[in-house]
């Protein structure tokens, strides 16, 4: 028999552009499903690495709602994924007749609740499927199980289908979300849309957007409302909310689950009467009906456009109304040439890029990406797609590139087809008008208008091509000039800054933006000792820096320099921690308050409304050792302190003038960092060799809810703004020479970042470890929207991480600082975001909006670039002074 690695092949179940699926047996005789990846995917090392990491995580911690991953091998000649064989029918074979025969009503509501619950459970574990369809849902006795080979997630994380105007790299039109049809990134909202479509399919026996060719299905997904006829009215309202076109207003998976579970039994729900649709929501006819016989479709001008480069993680922090930002034009997506019911892939013949995987030639239309049953072999029905007689292949077909040059206009289908005319007699059809024949029939207003439109389309296409050539040249010049500016930053900073401004104005490439932001960095004066912590005012105008010599307040409003406003606590020794107090919700107290903690073991509350005259409001004593960190709850009522002796204390500071200690706990080792959850119910504590999470809803008696022993020093802890993630930064622990060799190896290792998921109120669960560096990671900070994490490496590297997919953070831009950036502050300003980081005896401040960074560069340039210098560095481009 044929072998695939160690697995014996019994038969081929299906094939698709992403690979072939076989039913196999292991060496001990058990059945498994083996997917071998297609050639174009098996050669993409980045895709394979993402796929392996993702599936190994699922194998080690298998979710109940997924078919279990048995094996993953991406290093051999034929990369493969092995999953368990589920001996149960699929949703397609149980419900998909395509002739109006749905799941029985008494089972429909229970199935809807089970599907929504299974998806919600996956999303709570930060697992997005990306390719939901009937043959991927197996109805086991314990509930629905999703078949998932991980291809959709890996393609999405690799960039395929993530740019507007490009085809989705996964999904099928019948259950595709509008944003994926428009080439936008995969998010959990796409799963919710597809899951609601599956529920409609189960209850009615037909896909939510009917049958028809791929172009018509794509058009309906984007512009039309789903057909909910036959769905019980209360459930139809819930499904409509889960299938909203805008993913930001769509129900989440947990909301879909909760609302479905709250509905009355199916036999008590009124059913929506078929055929009664709201005005304007009529079915859209197939596109073939709008084209005259023999006519060739005109190519869309948008198909010639190229999406701008995706912004880096650092640039995602920039305000969208930046004065120098280049406009982005939405483009119609090109359609992919793929196999019915299979994962979508870019059209054949398309040059491979970093953001898309080239497609193999499309296989026979009868094949699918999931195992298919045959009458001769009932065992295959466990993984079967509904037969063609039950559900038309076009209902699930991928769009055809040759048939779909671009997304059609929604009004196109309003045109009626022409009547059939005798041979040789030209035909003109116009909605609502009679058909005219004759020698001069073509000289009609519609024909003249059509000719003018055709000329206009060709002209626009030519203009688009010329524009693309110019844009490509500008981008290349911008990147080249940015590289030259970067090389001159240390030796000729004035010239480098002006070249960076010019590079960004030529084209706002990520390379130009990064060197411009770096060129605009401002640094405080040396304090005479190490800087331990920094804090920014909400408006980004004031920087507070805690150091060995006290606290210094710096005015950041002058773009040309940083001005020292005042200093305080200069006679108490080192100040190690700063924590701004939030504004009270009632707005009665307009003061700016900050808490400090230092070597004298005293925490203090200060009024810094006027940074030039800080005033002490209260002192919190009783700490047995030097304070290492301090944190304030979001409502400003609680304060936590950590000290070098391992004691963590909670204080009631609702009355700023009379703080009161509520509780104190001693932990096994020095406490390095404390932080409150956004809702104030939990406190995370990091220290030498441990991580703790406390429930502080009763602050007088905190209760430990989670504890981890680590072989590192947890140097900083931070909650994400939505409270769903806990991020920890760690550095290596010092080696104890008295320890044995095995323990020393465990003890002495590099540090990095670890993310924990706290969704659902359960024990924090590790979901990602990344950013490992020999010197470890000393500090971190979330952006306000929680999508970006900024980390400070022990070796001076500041890195940004894109957390769109929380289990697989993607590294973005980097900055450098002298010293160890163990504390970071990310604040807002009138022009984007400001990042402040501790350095070696000073603090550094970056303006993350390139437009504001350009103003800062030009404000402090001493010698303007000359025309001769410009022509020497940028030959071939006319001179324009970067800083007038």
Protein described:
The structure is a single chain. The chain is α+β, with helices and mostly antiparallel strands and 884 residues long. 22% of the residues lie in helices and 25% in strands. It contains 16 helices and 34 strands. The strands form eight sheets. It has a six-stranded antiparallel beta sheet. Strand 7 and strand 8 form a beta hairpin. Helix 4 runs antiparallel to helix 7, helix 4 packs antiparallel against helix 10 and helix 11 (445-488) runs parallel beside helix 13 (510-519). The longest helix has 44 residues, at 445-488. The chain is globular. Mean pLDDT is 74; it is low at 96-100, 160-169, 273-313, 318-444 and 736-748.
Q: What key phrases describe this protein's structure?
A:
16 helices; 884 residues; 6-stranded antiparallel β-sheet; alpha+beta
Radius of gyration: 31 Å
Globular, elongated, flat, extended or rod-shaped: what is the shape?
Answer: globular
Low-pLDDT residue intervals, each spanning 5 or more residues? 96-100, 160-169, 273-313, 318-444, 736-748
Q: What strand order characterises the main sheet?
A: 1-2-3-4-6-5
Tally of DSSP β-strands: 34
Number of helices: 16
Residue-averaged pLDDT: 74
Question: What proportion of the residues is helical, as a percent range?
Answer: 10-25%
- Major beta-sheet overview: 6 strands, antiparallel
